[in-house]
């Protein structure tokens, strides 16, 4: 590696860093050490990671260097350091879900996505912090630490995948995996100036993702650019026999990503630009629409009246599924058992009371109430009917438009502890992202500006089911004529 090259090495795209590895301009071990040097410098300020896997990463880096030295053909993402959210299983490495309940859990198997990344010799540098069991919008609900936003460490990075977002934004990894149940990839991407992709439900196997809301959960990616997102999605998008909801469908997302968006039709839902959306956010997204218009696309305002019920429906469906999924953590089948108890009932009560945080308990109680006898029809069944209406409304809109564009989040990153004790304010953070999960559609957030505090603003591009290619193409076209994806946090 040439003198001074490490200065901007961590800012390179996946394509650029891959080229350097394959041309032997830098070794994989050197690159991995450079990333750990960066982690050592900034981790005390950002708190991105729960577990750092330095020994394993350097071991894997040596294997990649040997393959390159032997002239073996390696995958484009081979040898590139990345990170994994701590609710995605990693064999032999702790997977805690940022909860005391699982603080000692070491999975005996890899998640599907972990296995696919290992197959191409990706280098995992660590497991990232998150809101406990992916429940939250600020990464302050972790049992271990609160992650900070690299653009301003007095602010949150978003959630629940805030650790994954922060580590990429801070240059501690080239890309990272997160999970998105109601916006947990897109909102943190918006807050940290990254591209956050939530694929169609079924596009990526959920095998080995610790379940929160099984009909809503989807693994997503954090990258610097939409082109980088396309490269990562190519690796992860496969049918998996271990997940009956995963679908066999066409890949090769990088093909045609640079093609023109001339004639593309964009729908702009009035409901996602109305009350509750910050003026600076609204204006940044409207300016982005004009940029897309200059590239040959057309946009017009549309009405999706059922979207206003999405938040209410989601906060019945997601807690209901969570209360069911989390019932297994009882100290007998799964989870850390309470140490002192006299009866079986006391053991259950103490185990769950001591090892679940307040937000998780809140959602379990909401879910149990909504599913309880006498309330099931009034709440859960009604919420599922609303979900169907939201899905049908999107389908109708997509018969006329190629993509739908909105703000990703109603505001930019807020201060640490600002909304921690106000669950309703925190739930409203998801108003623009939740409808997408209810409908199972693909969407991504790409940076489209900064507010007066120099905090990033994200634009959400929503596509038809299994049409990730179009949203990646639109984002890529926009990124090529703007500088937002090139800007870096000053940390």
Structural account:
Helix 8 runs antiparallel to helix 16, helix 10 (310-325) packs across helix 12 and helix 10 (310-325) crosses helix 13 (377-398). With 491 residues, the protein is an alpha/beta fold. It folds into two domains: 10-236, Amidase signature (AS) enzymes; 265-442, Amidase signature (AS) enzymes. The longest helix is centred in the last third of the chain and has 22 residues, at 377-398. Helices cover 38% and strands 12% of the residues. An eleven-stranded mixed sheet has the order 1-3-2-4-6-5-10-11-9-7-8, with helices on both faces. It is globular, with a radius of gyration of 21 Å.
Unreliable stretches (pLDDT < 50, length at least 5) are 1-7
First and last CA, distance: 24 Å
The CATH level-2 architecture of the largest domain is identified as: Alpha-Beta Complex
Strand line-up in the sheet with most strands = 1-3-2-4-6-5-10-11-9-7-8
Order of helices and strands, N to C?
HHHEHEHEHEHEEHEHEHHHHEHHEEH
Largest sheet: 11 strands, mixed
The top level CATH class name of the largest domain: Alpha Beta
> For this structure, what is the CATH homologous superfamily of the largest domain?
Amidase signature (AS) domain
Helix fraction by DSSP (H/I, runs of at least 4): 25-40%
Count of structural domains: 2
Helix/strand-derived class?
alpha/beta
Question: Rg from C-alpha positions?
Answer: 21 Å
CATH fold-level topology of the largest domain: Amidase signature (AS) enzymes
Count of strand segments: 11
């Amino acid at each position: 590696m040439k003198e001074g090259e490490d200065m901007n090495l961590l800012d390179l795209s996946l394509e650029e860093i891959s080229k350097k590895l394959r041309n032997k301009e830098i070794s994989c071990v050197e690159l991995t050490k450079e990333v750990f040097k960066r982690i050592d410098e900034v981790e005390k300020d950002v708190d991105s990671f729960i577990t750092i896997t330095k020994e394993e990463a350097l071991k894997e880096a040596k294997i990649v260097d040997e393959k390159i030295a032997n002239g073996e053909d390696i995958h484009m993402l081979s040898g590139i350091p990345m990170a994994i959210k701590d609710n995605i299983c990693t064999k032999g490495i702790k997977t805690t879900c940022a909860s005391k309940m699982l603080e000692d859990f070491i999975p005996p198997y890899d998640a599907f996505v972990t296995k696919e990344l290992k197959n191409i010799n990706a280098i995992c540098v660590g497991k990232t912090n998150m809101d406990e069991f992916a429940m939250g919008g600020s990464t302050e609900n972790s049992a271990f630490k609160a992650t900070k936003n690299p653009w301003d460490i007095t602010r949150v990075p978003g959630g629940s995948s805030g650790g994954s977002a922060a580590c990429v934004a801070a240059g501690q990894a080239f890309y990272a995996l997160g999970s998105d149940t109601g916006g947990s990839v897109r909102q943190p991407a918006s807050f940290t100036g990254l591209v956050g992709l939530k694929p169609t439900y079924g596009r990526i196997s959920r095998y080995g993702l610790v379940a929160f809301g099984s009909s809503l959960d989807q693994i997503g990616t954090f990258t610097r650019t939409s082109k980088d997102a396309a490269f990562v999605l190519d690796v992860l998008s496969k049918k998996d026999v271990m997940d009956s909801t995963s679908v066999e469908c066409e890949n090769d997302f990088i093909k045609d990503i640079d093609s023109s968006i001339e004639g593309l039709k964009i729908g702009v839902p009035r409901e996602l630009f109305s009350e509750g959306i910050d003026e600076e956010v609204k204006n940044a997204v409207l300016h982005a629409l004009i940029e897309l218009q200059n590239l040959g696309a057309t946009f017009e305002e549309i009405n999706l009246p059922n979207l206003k019920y999405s938040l209410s429906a989601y906060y019945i469906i997601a807690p209901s599924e969570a209360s069911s999924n989390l019932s297994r953590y009882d100290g007998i089948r799964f989870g850390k058992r309470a140490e002192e108890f006299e009866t079986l009932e006391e053991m259950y009560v103490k185990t769950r009371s001591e090892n679940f945080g307040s937000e998780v308990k809140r959602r379990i109680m909401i879910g149990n109430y909504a599913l309880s006898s006498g309330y099931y029809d009034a709440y859960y069944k009604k919420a599922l009917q609303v979900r169907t209406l939201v899905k049908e409304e999107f389908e109708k809109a997509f018969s006329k438009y190629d993509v739908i564009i909105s703000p990703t989040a109603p505001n930019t990153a807020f201060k640490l502890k600002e909304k921690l004790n106000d669950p309703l304010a925190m739930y409203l953070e998801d108003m623009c992202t939740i409808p997408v999960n209810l409908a199972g559609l693909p969407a991504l957030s790409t940076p489209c500006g900064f507010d007066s505090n120099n905090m990033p603003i994200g634009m959400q591009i929503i596509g038809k089911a299994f049409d990730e290619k179009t949203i990646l193409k639109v984002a890529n076209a926009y990124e090529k004529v703007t500088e937002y994806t090139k800007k870096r946090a000053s940390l």
